[in-house]
Amino acid sequence: MGVTAGIQGSRGGVAGLVCLLLLLVLVTGCGRKGPPRAADLVEPLAISDLTLMLGDRSIGLGWSHPRTARDGRPLTDLVGFVVYRKSTPADCPDCNAAYGERAVVNAEDEGRFSKESQYKFTDTELETGRVYRYRVRVVLSDGSLSKPSNEVSIEWQRR
Questions:
Q1: CA pair distance 96, 109, nearest whole angstrom
Q2: Topology annotation, domain 39-156
Q3: FRET partner for 13 with CA separation of 20 to 30 A, picked from 5, 28, 137, 139?
Q4: Which residue, among 91, 101, 102, has the nearest Cα to 130 in the 3D structure?
C-alpha cells in the first residue's frame, strides 16, 4: 500500500508540474508587444507615385520607398516590389489583357540606417506598336502584397 501511494503521489507531482509549465507559457504569451493588429492594417500603403520615363530603347519606372502600413505604423519588413506589365496592340488599347509579373525588385536596404528613397526598374523587352501599362506592388517578408500602385502607360514606338 505504501508503494501505491508513492506512485500516485509522484503522478500528482508530475501533473502539477505540467500544469505549472502550461500556466507559465500562457502568462508569458508570444513575446509581441501591444495588442494584435488586423492583417489589413499591417498591409503597406500602395505606391501612389509610380512614374514612367522614356528612354531611347527602354521604358523606365520610378517610385518612392513606402514608409508606413495602412494603420500609420512604420513599415519595417519590406523585402521588395513586384512590377506588373500589361501589353495590348496600339490599335486596340482597350482590348482585354491581364497584368503579368514582369520583374521583382529587391529592397536591400531594410537593415541599414539610411534607406533608399527611390526605386527604379527599366524595361527593355519592348515591341513597336504596343501599349504598355505598368503597376507595382510592395512585398513584405511574410510574402503579403500591397494593393496595386497607380497605373502608368505608354504606346511604344521605336526611336
A1: 37
A2: Immunoglobulin-like (2.60.40)
A3: 28
A4: 91
